[in-house]
Amino acid sequence: MNFFRQWGRFMLMGARVFAQWEINNSNVILRDRKRVILLCILILPIICGGIVFADSIGDAMPELLGGKKAYSPAFYSTGIFIVSILIGMGAGLITGCIGAGGGFIIAPALMSAGIKGILAVGTDLFHIFAKAIMGSVIHRKLGNVSVPLAVVFLLGAIIGATLGGVINRVLYEINPVLSDAFITTVYALMLGFLGAYALIDYLKARKSSEADEGGGHAHGGKDEGAEMGNLPRKIQAIKLPPMVKFDFELTPGGRSISWLFLVLSGALVGLAAGIMGVGGGFLTFPIFVYILGVSSMTTVGTDIFQIVFTAGYASISQYAIYGFIFYTLAMGMLLGSLLGIQIGAMVTKVVKGITIRGFYAMAVLAGFVNRIFALPSKLGEMGVIPISKQVGGVLDTIGVWAFFIVIGIFGVWVVGTFFSNISVLKGEEVSK
Questions:
Q1: How far is CA 4 from each of CA 10, 196, 216, 337, 371, rounded to the nearest angstrom?
Q2: Rounded to 5 degrees, what are φ and ψ at 169?
Q3: In sequence order, what are the beta bridge partners of 246?
Q4: What is the pTM for the complete model shown?
Q5: Is the distance from CB of 210 to CB of 25 less than 8 angstroms?
Q6: Is the peptide bond prior to 376 cis by the omega test (within 30 degrees of 0)?
């Protein structure tokens, strides 16, 4: 039980690290006029092309970039594009306001909107990659990156992302419903575990006298991982060359670990990214700190480093060239998330941290309910469980409504809080 509590704690820390990376990217993009102009240049043609010339643009696209399939793999309408903006905004509000990864809700939200699971994963990965390229804030964290550690880790991440992409594509070729059921199951397990821990964390914080000091942006200290547990000690004691050295600032001569464990860890993170489309950043932190014994200072830099390359590699090599990216939706989500992150981040200045924790637990658990309620209908379609189409459809609808109601209430609350406190926020900025 202690292991699961620790893993949940570090997993939540990983989600916060990933969120901080997204917040940094958003700030860099929106505070630079040239980047904003570039964003408009990227988005406007795709919007116009998607709405007016989707078929002709798709015919003109080379097969290497997915051809027509990349532009019209699902029913497209202006309404779906608006939904993509709202989904991106909802994820951005969670990221900015709560300080933990709002990207967890994107794939479930897209699937609930009628997008195939494999397309939702590819589109989410491309959205992350586009944000990373436009933000280009990785250089700010290079001082915390152990280059040998990152390079060996990325070797495994590329292998894992390739495997994840192959699994998704093979399952889709066998049966699109099987593909959706697989992705749905993975998300249900991950969101259920993370949501349960977030809820326990929230309930404990309510009882704690220090609840108000926690806040949504709390992170592990820089010394996290400085004192290793038994598992990291045992792993670092295995001297299987070549050995990779790191954390010279913490211990004389630094620490060392066999390349094998880094490659295996990278493969696991890459596999999660390839299957789920979330960049894999939420796993890097707990694996590095809790299993490999890397300090959080080094872990944060390496995490940001791997997200850029893992998401870029997976989105292009495993999804884009096979036509499994809906570019219009990706740009809509990028637009919405940039706006949502800014609003959410400002709301944290006028809202208690304990309230933010509660909303995060609700958001993650809503995603869990959404996916777990969607699963019976998919299993029924494949004949795995005896359930009528009507019953499966009712359960699916309940999950969709529960999900969007919770996320919608959260979004309305955050935006309402923002507008009702504009004078306070302006006063705070003036006082700075």
A1: 10, 11, 22, 31, 22
A2: -70, -40
A3: 255
A4: 0.82
A5: no
A6: no
